[in-house]
Amino acid sequence: MITIKDKQFEPFIHHEQIAERVTALAQKLNADYTGRNPILLTILNGAFMFAADLVRQLDFDHEIQFTKLSSYDGMDTTGKVTELIGLSADIKDRDIIIVEDIIDTGTTMYHLLPKLKERGAKSIEIAALLMKPGKLTKPLQVKYCAMEIPNEFIVGYGLDYDGLGRNYKSIYVVKEN
Ligand code: IMP
Ligand code: MG
Prior knowledge:
By secondary structure, the protein is an alpha/beta fold. 22% of the residues lie in helices and 37% in strands. It has a six-stranded mixed beta sheet with strand order 5-4-3-6-7-8, sandwiched between helices. Strands 1-2-10-9 form a four-stranded antiparallel beta sheet. It binds inosinic acid and magnesium ion (MG).
């Protein structure tokens, strides 16, 4: 059990299981992207750890870019997406793989996808560590997803509660009391 600010969290997904699922996802990307030199567009802050583990297992040429988007405040989505660091790279005619920590309502991705299309991306796919299908409110195709979870708030492996808890190598779920 861990405590972050006013909340307690209990073990949910062990780091060994995360590693297995990330490896399986990397293998799918390896099968699909050879010879295409895609841009892996990593969404800060939450996806930094997932991206670091993922790219070390990719065996095709690729470039890594970052953008920082924010939609969550504490344990809830605000429904609005704020761009805190923009994407400066030229993405015209490029294959894009968005690397995201977790798809919750889908608002963040729904905001980002048209912007990438407008800038002339050749193809856009989403690679997400986690997804909460029960909370999705937008029509989103997530071609690469490592794990699906129920509608619970989690921390660890890059994901935070109020800025804290990103450092844990396993994932923890909030304990309702
Ligand atoms: P969406 O825009 O509602 O899909 O929310 C996606 C963003 O909210 C993710 O990139 C995360 O940063 C954050 N988020 C969603 N669910 C959780 C969670 O359970 N723990 C921590 N962050 C979360
Ligand atoms: Mg995020």
